[in-house]
Amino acid sequence: MSDRTVHTAEWAERALAEAAHHEPASREEQVLERIERARRRRPKITEERVTLAHGAGGKASRTLIEAVFVEAFRNPVLQPLDDGATLDLGTGRLVFTTDAYVVSPLFFPGGDIGDLAVNGTVNDLAVCGARPMYLSAAFVLEEGFPLADLRRITASMADAAERAGVKVVTGDTKVVQRGKADGCYVTTAGVGALERPVTLGESQVRPGDAVIVSGPIGEHGITVLIARGDLDIEADLTSDTAPLHDAVAALLDAVPVRMMRDATRGGVATVLNEVARGAGVAVTVDERALPVRPIVSGACELLGLDPLYVACEGRFVAVVDGDHAEAAVTALRRHPVGEGAAVVGRIEPGPPGMVLLNTAFGGTRIVDLLVGDPLPRIC
Amino acid sequence: MSDRTVHTAEWAERALAEAAHHEPASREEQVLERIERARRRRPKITEERVTLAHGAGGKASRTLIEAVFVEAFRNPVLQPLDDGATLDLGTGRLVFTTDAYVVSPLFFPGGDIGDLAVNGTVNDLAVCGARPMYLSAAFVLEEGFPLADLRRITASMADAAERAGVKVVTGDTKVVQRGKADGCYVTTAGVGALERPVTLGESQVRPGDAVIVSGPIGEHGITVLIARGDLDIEADLTSDTAPLHDAVAALLDAVPVRMMRDATRGGVATVLNEVARGAGVAVTVDERALPVRPIVSGACELLGLDPLYVACEGRFVAVVDGDHAEAAVTALRRHPVGEGAAVVGRIEPGPPGMVLLNTAFGGTRIVDLLVGDPLPRIC
């Protein structure tokens, strides 16, 4: 993280020095200065209580993570805030990751909380470059939860584990009184082996790299939202929940990959902001290149949502060497989960920390981290 | 597990053959036959909904685990149902474990959900013979939960991690609406290295071994119960929550250890039943040897509880070579968490699966797995 910080600070200093020569400062320069000031501030939570926004993956989540969790657990393994932690155990490198699943409803077209909990953790291991191997599963059950539903969930976990080639090897169950949970929450953790000699992460990203999305976006989020039944929409749509490890391995074999992240809570927009901020670069995205099925863009229009922010559970964003962008897409398209892969954008030197969308209408707009949570409990 | 089953079946066959020579069958023989019949039956859940008893660590928990989780995730690593799973990664052996924490209240004398979540997972790794190294932490937060409380919890997790020499390296946070949780649930998973060439487990237990408890029992459970404030009891008692890895390492260095388990939910009685059933042996316990502080036995009497079933969070049960029982206690007593260690019982060949308590009054009673849950949400 310190490398990036230096990089960004230098960039800002240059920008400010240049600005001093061209008084009055341009709007862009003023914006940059504001960004830099914000970056130098320690993250600080102004709220006194947890809000749904703290769980949404956007700005509030980031502040909560940095001000509370990183502050408390400060250590170099945690610091990169990747999808998983890379552990060097002397005898070999492992990736270790965890996610809690609280999706509502528990069952939805194309999946349920069970396969979500397996695929999500498998995917976090995969995008860190590891071969997913072992999972743990901890359940918090609400008193009165139907055992038939629990069996259905564990059966779909077992199926998902089989498909992903992982084993659920340890677990725990707690039961809380009625009204102290919402049926069933599942937390999985995963361990995978880092067998490839590749180094992945935001620190590897550089201007000229290409940004790839592995398939049509937003299908999981919209499916869950419609499954809640309080919208007057019907759509023939299923969740994209799927294990990504095979497609990820194919990509790693085919081209030089800088980093990957699965686009879950907060969607592709949130991943791209993490890339831009983490790497101290800008990401430009071509709206016309974004793979979005008409049924998803239609539902998003009706709901006032931007598909860029809607969660996927079987899609990932990859930053690859710009010269190998087409080879990357070709490699991904050989896999069912990567059939709709597309080059959607490019890494630029600056303005650092910014994601810029070139819209279908010829304009450019900033794609920022979300402040609120339009879609609570989507995963 | 199959070894044990064979052992038990042979034992029962002998018992039944002997019984045939001495008609009518004695009461003990009838009991044994009933036990054997029950053992041969597949676990079956008769309830249609989850009850608090399913989370209590007793009979219902065991049935839930065997009928639902083991049934779904069936694999040889999960099968022993130990506190952690031992993973052979080619390059070295690891232990991987997880636990969900739902204790109520979140803060109690001597600790809170935070250090409980760290110590609990550290202890699960330690009693599996591993050096605890890395933890993950996943939070399910209720909308409206005070951030000051979250900071207090993460601070005590950080302190506990520091004391245990582990790092929290990855995590996740989800937020659910008001009324869908109870403030804060924490799930930790842990990874530790198996560096000693020792094999631990119920399969190592044999008649003549000694049963050791590492310190006075029941303090955590009674402390939490009193902290709930709906009893008219005041007691100067604090939770025993503590990391056990140092005491465990000292024990492993000192004597031949067969198996260890921390006595959390369900208390020492539940661990002893797991030993008896898992190893196909009997465990006899001397009530007068059990370390119980007068304040705990007094509170238990008032509450109608048996301290043998009350959760500890910083105590473990060890089965060691019978010839080294005193050396084991001496090694443990050198550590603050083991100061009150005592030899409390002995492994006998049969009746297999039974825990028998020689009471202070000279009688003998069966200590069975609990059916209900007298103490929900104690950890």
TrEMBL record, chains A, B:
One of its GO terms (biological process) is protein maturation. It comes from the Bacteria. Residues 82-193 form the PurM-like N-terminal domain. InterPro entries: HypE, PurM-like_C_dom, PurM-like_C_sf, PurM-like_N, PurM-like_N_sf. Residues 206-351 form the PurM-like C-terminal domain. Pfam families: AIRS, AIRS_C. SUPFAM superfamilies: PurM C-terminal domain-like (SSF56042), PurM N-terminal domain-like (SSF55326). Belongs to the HypE family. This is Hydrogenase expression/formation protein HypE. It comes from Nonomuraea wenchangensis. The lineage of its organism: Bacteria, Bacillati, Actinomycetota, Actinomycetes, Streptosporangiales.
